[in-house]
Amino acid sequence: MKQVVVASNNPGKLRELGAMLAALGIEAMPQSPLGVGEAEEPHETFLENALAKARHASRITGQPALADDSGLCVTALRGAPGVHSAYYAGSEGRRAERDARNNAKLVSALREIPHRGAYYYCVLVLVRSAADPAPLVADGEWHGEIVLQPRGENGFGYDPHFLVDGSRTAAELSADEKNRVSHRARALTALAERLKRAMG
Question: Global pTM?
Fold first, then answer.
């Protein structure tokens, strides 16, 4: 498999997945230039949403498609924002505006809570066709804690508030560092192993 459609319009995800797939010798084709709009994500699990997005992109393009569904899960908030991470504080506005509102809501919810353990979760689904009866599925987790003051200029989403090694937030890591240790990197490593086995 030399090319896959990446079923996302999120520029941060496209950058990360594109770099990771390139390291495997696979070209990532963003879905938008191929005429694929955003798929509905009505489900309450990351897996169901990722599968819906992958099938949607493959159905329209006729190509293999890879979809990611991921989010931040905070223990003290019973797993929230979870599958609603991207629109935790509403869907209005541009991505940067939504990120700012999401982070403000998260900080407000945790301000009086002393233990702020959290993890990013990612599930990747690769379908070889829209009707693929046996999609390849892999997931990954990245554990840390939430800090109330944002730090760092890299990454996206909740990265400025996600402390990962006791001293730096995800937004203080370089792209290369993040791509080696993140939830998405771990899921893609696992998916690559499954893909190698499937291809013999």
Answer: 0.87
